[in-house]
Design a protein that fits this description.
By secondary structure, the chain is mostly helical. Helices cover 48% and strands 5% of the residues. The radius of gyration is 15 Å and the shape is globular.
């Protein structure tokens, strides 16, 4: 299994598709091929308010769910403030 397939699993892309295929490569390269940073950023993007309202029908907002998933990948700073 390659890194992009692993990213898709963590993003729950099969259940809730969001990104275009080329965006996985873009964000991976943008984050220096760092798996955790890439997943974190993409989950935050996916966490944007996702409520859909069409002809009186509302979908459930999933933003809190994706923010909780992103918290698992949040980078922690171990540096000291100067």
């Amino acid at each position: 299994m390659d890194i992009i397939d692993r990213i898709k699993i963590e993003l729950r892309e099969e259940q809730i598709p969001f990104f275009k295929e080329e965006e996985f490569t873009y964000f991976l390269e943008k984050n220096g091929n760092d798996f955790d940073k890439t997943v974190y950023e993409m989950l935050l993007i996916k966490a944007e308010d996702s409520t859909i309202q069409v002809s009186g029908w509302n979908s459930q907002d999933t933003s809190a769910y994706f923010r909780r998933l992103a918290a698992r990948f949040r980078p922690f700073s171990s540096g000291q403030l100067g």
